Amino acid sequence: MSSGKGKTPFRIVVILPLLLLTIALASYFWPNFHGKDHFSGQSEANLEPPLLTPLPQTPETMSKTAGLFPPALSSLGRLPDWSQLDRFQQTITREEFLHRLDTIYSKNEGWKRWIATNDKLALINTGNAVYTLKFTSGPLRSPGAIFPFKKKSDLISFKSHRLTGLHIAIDPGHIGGDFAKIEERNLRYGDHEPIQEGTMTLLTSTHLKALLEELGAQVTLVRKTTTPVTSLRPRDFTGRDQKSAEKLFYRSAEIRARADLINQSIQPDLVLCLHFNASASPVPLAGQNFHIILNGAYHPAEISNQDERFEMLQHLLAGTISEELPLAKKIAEIFASQTGLPAYEYRPNHPYATKLAPYIWGRNLLANRLYQCPVIFMEPYTMNSTDFIARHKAGDYEGQRLVDGKMRLSVYREYAKALADGVAAYYRKQ
Ligand SMILES: [Zn+2]
Questions:
Q1: Are residue 241 and residue 108 in the same domain, yes or no?
Q2: What is the Å distance from ligand 1's center to 408 Cα?
């Protein structure tokens, strides 16, 4: 969709792509998209009505259509302030912009319905206006992220404290405790105590925090107890059935509250989201796996939401992937070698996942989308496997014990150590 040379009249450069976009939009009927209720993720359902309003081209047509159609937003999504992208003006080349869209962020060229580019700029349909992003023709300039995060190259590494100067937030996935049933993270097998993901991620976090601090990092836990970060509860979402209200509470409101905490007050250099995976099997089977999720692989229907389109561009322009991908590769290498877990594979041509490297997948989850710095979303182990159940029964303990036929650390300490070692290995100066 590139158009024009430098001397082409402004009307052709700007109006023509807009006209084409308008035609594309008007002729396009959005398919109903029911976001899959993945066990591991917070992929949100988008049941917004199809957007049929033509792209406004002038202030006159904009004011005529303003307010006629509700903005397309994700669940509990906020209307974006597109001027926040101003800090990214002339910081990225067109080539890199398109490369990140095509290889990391967008599935099936879904971005093309909303973004048109030429050599000098990208025109982004915000839903009720057009945002113009100018490219740089020179080398990439360091963008001003929403808050500045330190990269590996910014750190002065010391031998014994190689994470000195790095602020890491650990986000123990889910809530656990009394909330484990509501959030459907409460597996029961026989009369053994329930396997609660949110309780286990918190326990793992406390071990991980100690290890990262030993390495010199400043570490902040996004939650310290098995209580929600949000002050909202299911009863606050009136006018809907109980299940829907519960989902809005734990899947949207809770993650959004954590995002506010991270983006507005913690402002770390890196977030480690801790989770445990599970299979779809209704009965425990042998065999576990592991993968890491990075923000990416936006489905066309997700990009059609104003807030998701904006948040995707925030990540793309801030360049979080440049830090996330090499870090994830190092973590995957160390984590796999220490735990022996094989790589999890999504099925080929999965509509919501893109393979970025062995063990590493792009997926658009609410947490890795909203947290405005590099985010590593861990999905190791398989909670409903016979192997894991044996380790859960063994509990948390110091040193090694014979569990499931092998001398092992407790699963929580093994998880924490393998992750801390992976992070430390990445930040080691060559
Ligand atoms: Zn989880």
A1: no
A2: 23
Closest to 427 in 3D by CA, of 167, 144, 141: 167
Handedness of CA 334, 337, 341, 347 (dihedral sign): positive
pLDDT of residue 57: 37
CA of 198 to the centre of ligand 1 (A): 8
**Same domain assignment for residues 103 and 205:** no
- 210 CA distance to ligand 1 centroid (A)? 22
Coil vs helix vs strand at 86: helix
Q: H or E segment at 10?
A: helix 10-10
The string of pLDDT tens digits covering residues 103-155 is 999 999 999 999 999 999 999 999 989 999 999 988 777 776 788 899 998 88
* Cα 26 to averaged position of ligand 1 atoms, centre (Å): 39
Helix (H, G, I), strand (E, B) or coil at 386: helix
DSSP 177: G
CA–centroid distance, 201 to ligand 1, in Å, is 9
What is the mean predicted confidence (pLDDT) over 297-310? Answer: 96
Q: What percent of the chain has pLDDT over 70?
A: 82
Q: State the chain's mean pLDDT as an integer.
A: 86
284 C-alpha vs ligand 1 centroid, how far in Å? 18
CA of 354 to the centre of ligand 1 (A): 19
Q: How confident is the model at residue 70 (pLDDT cuts 50, 70, 90)?
A: confident
User: Does 317 fall in a domain?
Assistant: yes
Distance 174 CA to ligand 1 centre (A): 6
Q: Which of 135-144, 162-171, 206-215 bottoms out in mean pLDDT, i.e. has the lowest? A: 135-144
Closest CA relative to residue 367, chosen from 184, 172, 195:
172
DSSP state, 382? B
Asked whether residue 188 falls in the same domain as residue 119, the answer is no
pTM, 2 dp? 0.85
CA of 183 to the centre of ligand 1 (A): 10
Could you tell me if residue 205 is inside a domain? yes
156 band by pLDDT with thresholds 50, 70 and 90: confident
**From ligand 1's centre to the CA of 85, what distance in Å?**
31
Domain match, 160 and 269 both: yes
Cα–chain center distance at 61 = 36
Beta strand pairing status for 167-172 and 130-134? Answer: unpaired
Q: Which of 134, 166, 194 is the last residue of a domain?
A: 134
Structure confidence by residue, pLDDT tens digits, 388-416: 999 999 999 999 999 989 999 999 999 99
Strands 375-380 and 401-403, by their bridges, are unpaired
How many angstroms separate the CA atoms of 70 and 218, rounded? 43
Q: 228 alpha carbon to ligand 1 midpoint, in Å?
A: 15
